[in-house]
Amino acid sequence: MPDLSKPDQTQPKLAPSTPLNPRRRGIVVGASGGIGAALSRKLAREGFTLALVDYNKSALQSLCDEINQTAGETRALIYECDVTKYDSVPDSLRRIIADLGGLDTFVYIAGVIYFPAMDEFNFNEDHKMMEVNLLGAMAWMSAVAPLFQSAKSGQIVGVSSVAGDRGRIGNPGYNASKAGLTNYLEALRNRLSRYGVNVLTVKPGMVMTDMLKLPGAPKPMLAVKPEQVADLIWNGMKKRKQTIYVAGIWKWIMLVIRHIPSVIFRRLSF
Amino acid sequence: MDITKNFTQLENFGHSLSAPAYLVRPANSEEIYSVFQNAKKMGLKVTARGAGRSYNDAALIGGGIVMDMRGMNAITSWDPSTGLVTAQSGVTLEKLWQTVEPDGWWPPVVSGTMKTTLGGCLSANIHGKNNFKMGTIGEHVVEFTAVLPTGAEITCTPKKNADLFYAMISGMGMLGIFVSITLQMKRIYSGLLSVDALPVQNLHGHLSALLDGAPDHDYIVGWLDCLAGGKSLGRGQIHATRYLHEGEDPNPQETMKLSNQSLPSRIFGVFPKSLLHYFMSPFINNFGTWGVNTAKYIASLRKHTFRQSHAAFHFLLDYIPDWELSYGRGGLIEYQSFLPKETAESAWTEMLKLSHKSGLPPYLGVTKRHRPDKFLLTHAVDGFSLATDFKVTNNNRVKLSRMLQDFDKIVLQAGGRFYFAKNSETTAETTASFYGAETIAKFKKLKKRCDPNGLLESDLYKRIFTD
Predict the structure, then answer these.
(1) What's the confidence (pLDDT) of residue A13?
(2) How many interface pairs between A and B have CB atoms less than 8 angstroms apart?
(3) pTM for this structure?
(4) What is the ipTM of this complex?
């Protein structure tokens, strides 16, 4: 992985924001995945200048080229970065903000999922999910939050999951990582909203991404396309919402599921 | 020194732009150098900021380090017998004039607001309403010391390190950081000025009055009603002002007292001016400004002469506190063009007509008379300047941007120039066009010498100088 703390001379320089041509700047961590790429394209179309962060360099590069070609100007920069290298986050963040010339929005979408068998406990996979889904988010957000707090502006978007709402029989590790993230985002919101910073928790249900193609993945149910998810997230961002379910129907499904008493829930097979 | 402790959203004067930066407040030359060392280590850019009174991005560097120079704000020596004053760069014009005026002196060049710092004034090489007579502030600098990003502390005078003297003044803080500045003040014999106010019916009359009125006066400034069209295009009022000679003021000791210079904080003695901007905002639109301008023009039709204190005459922008807030959430931008006296009339006629056609007239227009100077990044010409204020809204951004691009073309064609403390949209292309390759190469060579690692960079610099 490259050292992001020092300026990269090959990085294209962005034109600064002016009153009549203002730039909104965003960071998308986990930009090359299904939802990440779709949201990055969407934000770029809405005029954002983006730092695309992911560990998958080649996917990043093609996404970045696509965005810049569509926009007809440099609107995306790429940063190859492993989110589990927590110590390097503050330096990387400082570098990215200097390159972008500011920061208005931070989006964390990086996530991994493994599907254990019903009777399988796999600590290695659980550990990985906690690292990417939760600790990576905490590492980045605890660097971003104080900056937004002192600047008294900004928006943090965390992509959690409906899976964080209850601990189910199928995937304890994933449920734990996303429940942790949901609660972390809520606490962050409670800390930051008084400083004018918006924290948006996104809880997707099933999304037609590569995750659903993994071995052991459940059959798609009410699955939506990543582009639809991106549109809904952008809507939530514009309205400065606190929590959104995508698709919206999951709000009602999860309302029911959240209220299933344990005595019944522990006998169910999902 | 932990330079990343204070990450703050900073704004420009017109509230039309903001950028976050790590804010530090050095107290001396050593701390300035330490900021540079830290910046180099972290790969960050540095910009100095005085009072933040630029209308554009001159004192902003998004994601970089902003050095707030107001921590260095001591007047280190003042000699009322010679009028020489030495001050740190964070001293404001307000502090300066309040120090020298009671002793019978006045800063030779001041801006329209007294809140600016000397470091900022030198960086932009400000002019006043007496530019045709006294030149820019740089022409009254006897000596300055500055810290370069290399750590070197240098002293410059018009003779010593002359190339840097003429480049750092006007250099928008991109070569080094001013630390201490010695200025020559101007003698005054009264706390009052004599102002001749006369109406002008159109742009031709306006510019002729500026041209003809200048030689017999010390200051000249015009208000231009930018909403008037047709035969009245360019109408307004000229204030031609002169110092009182020795003996003209029967009681100079009294008029020079600070209490006679202070701007009143209340209107009619009762209404607090700090609330005034709320009552102005309903008028900051095409119709409201048309009404205000017309009333103002009719009121100005009577030619008359009156006496006014120095502070009241010069610091119009401070007369209504926070007036810039009346422009609403999008803030305001200023577009100022400097044109040779031969081409000014036709160019501004075209520009004002264009603004009327676009439905985007400036709400304020101020004209001045100028003369050229020797500074490297000079904005002055032998001619006039017209400064205009535009309200920025979410709906007019695109249209306004297109119109100002057309303005730029008209100004360049007419041999005009722009001023880096004001315009916020001037591009690198435009800058290269009016300076010419030679001047820019000369500046970049000096930049390389003073700042080999390219540490000093503002958003303005990124905008107007491409590498």
Answers:
(1) 80
(2) 90
(3) 0.91
(4) 0.86
